[in-house]
Design brief:
34% of the residues lie in helices and 22% in strands. By secondary structure, it is α/β, with parallel strands linked by helices. The protein has two domains: 98 residues, Urease, subunit C, domain 1; 275 residues, Metal-dependent hydrolases (TIM Barrel). The strands form two sheets. Strands 1, 2, 3, 4, 5, 14, 15 and 16 form an eight-stranded mixed β-sheet that branches. Strands 6-7-8-9-10-11-12-13 form an eight-stranded parallel β-sheet. Strand 7, helix 4 and strand 8 form a beta-alpha-beta unit. Helix 5 packs parallel to helix 7 and helix 12 packs across helix 13. The structure holds N-(iminomethyl)-L-glutamic acid. The site of N-(iminomethyl)-L-glutamic acid has 12 residues, from helix 2. This is Imidazolonepropionase. It comes from Prauserella rugosa.
Length: 396
């Protein structure tokens, strides 16, 4: 690696997520290009071409938001108000956004996406996945994937978000597994299916994930969001990288997740905003499952891009410790996207990995205006982001 080096000094508390380094006090991180090239204690730090002193603040890896739906148009304030007045959340609300999204221009969709990605970055998110799923025709899904690929780090094909109103279910599943998959696959790395009552059933979900895998995409599943169901088992059986939501889990589901590589991605802001019970984070962690936290930013069930808010809920309401929640929102998200140093996709040396602070990883850092990461839950709702480096560039 050649080029100028920048040392971030004066780090009071550094969360590395690297088992060999742990939590480092009085730390220095050296960046070069888009990579971290050195991490350690200040007294033994190498010289660098430039220095940024963060004045004793806490530093952690940038948030890895592994679940968002940000290619959309329209507004669902009225649906939210009705929900707060006692209406239940229903999968069918997705159709409202589908209608608005189809009617929007490419520019409208792109402007909205850029605005939300910028909002996330300003709050410390440095690696972000987003999905299609509000188009639900071949042309609209391809359009969403193309736009997503210009601004998100990872793109997921979610043609299987809902059977479009008026469509025949089985013919739609044929389309999702056939022509639509063929058309969207060149623009996406992942495929997803909403396996839930009111969306897609077990056999349909199984067919969709198998077709996507056969087409070379990684797979993930939306499951167990609104009630007990087969989503987790479909995901684990098919080697999905993650199953997202996991609000209603049986003991068998927890056991299956604990015995697999499938990450349980919990979406605390969604559970809160849809008035569902909090996902059973403690049961999953105690059983040995890998847990990620993500925002699920979308206009229906969770209209927030704040990963800090998700971490605070996970600690205050879901029984996670601050360390567990911060790991889940950084390294956990990286595992769900197979970008953690432990994943082959990140290269054997962890080259270009995200969610960790160690030599070779992408230079994604989040500096808090606080002395420790504990303040994320101790001071909920307070904007604590003080500086952000994304792939080596200071963006906040
Ligand atoms: O993850 N569950 C399905 N999809 C989104 C909701 C999208 C919407 O309501 O528009 C979710 O919660």
């Amino acid at each position: 690696m050649t080029g100028r080096t920048t040392a971030i000094t004066g780090i009071g508390e550094l969360t590395t997520n690297d088992p060999g380094l742990g939590l480092v006090r009085d730390a220095v991180v050296v960046l070069q290009g888009d990579r971290i090239v050195w991490v350690g204690h200040a007294p033994v730090a190498p010289a660098a071409d430039s220095v940024v002193d963060v004045g004793g603040r806490a530093v952690l890896p940038g948030w890895v938001d592994s679940h968002t739906h940000l290619v959309f148009a329209g507004d669902r304030t009225a649906e939210f108000e009705a929900r707060m007045a006692g209406e239940p959340y229903r999968a069918g609300g997705i159709a409202t956004t589908v209608e608005a999204t189809r009617a929007a221009t490419d520019d409208d969709l792109e402007t909205t996406l850029v605005r939300h990605v910028g909002e996330a970055v300003r709050q410390g998110t440095t690696y972000l996945e987003t999905k299609t799923g509000y188009g639900l025709t071949v042309a609209d899904e391809v359009r969403a994937a193309r736009i997503a690929a210009r601004h998100a780090d990872e793109v997921t094909y979610l043609g299987a978000h809902l059977v479009p109103p008026g469509a025949d279910e089985e013919s739609y599943v044929d389309l999702v597994c056939g022509d639509m998959l063929e058309a969207v696959a060149p623009h996406a790395g992942w495929a997803d299916v909403f396996c839930e009552r009111g969306a897609f059933g077990e056999a349909q979900a199984e067919r969709i994930v198998r077709a996507a895998r056969a087409r070379g995409l990684g797979v993930r599943v939306h499951g167990n969001q609104l009630g007990h169901g087969p989503g987790v088992q479909v995901a684990v059986r098919n080697g999905a990288a993650s199953v997202d939501h996991c609000t209603y889990l049986s003991d068998e589901d927890v056991e299956a997740l604990a015995g697999s590589d499938t990450v349980a991605t919990l979406l605390p802001a969604c559970d809160l905003s849809t008035r569902q019970p909090p996902a059973p984070a403690r049961r999953l962690l105690d059983a040995g499952a890998t847990v990620a936290l993500a925002s699920n930013a979308n206009p229906g069930s969770s209209y927030t891009t704040s990963m800090a808010f998700c971490v605070a809920i996970a600690v205050l309401q879901m029984g996670m410790t601050v360390r567990e929640a911060v790991w889940a929102a950084t390294a956990g998200g990286a595992r769900a996207l197979r970008r953690h140093p432990a994943d082959a996709r990140a290269g054997q040396t962890g080259d270009g990995a995200v969610g960790v602070v160690r030599a070779g990883a992408r230079a994604d850092l989040h500096v808090l205006d606080a002395p420790s990461a504990t303040h994320l839950a101790y001071r909920p709702g307070v904007p604590l982001t003080w500086a952000v480096w994304r792939a080596g560039t200071r963006v906040v």
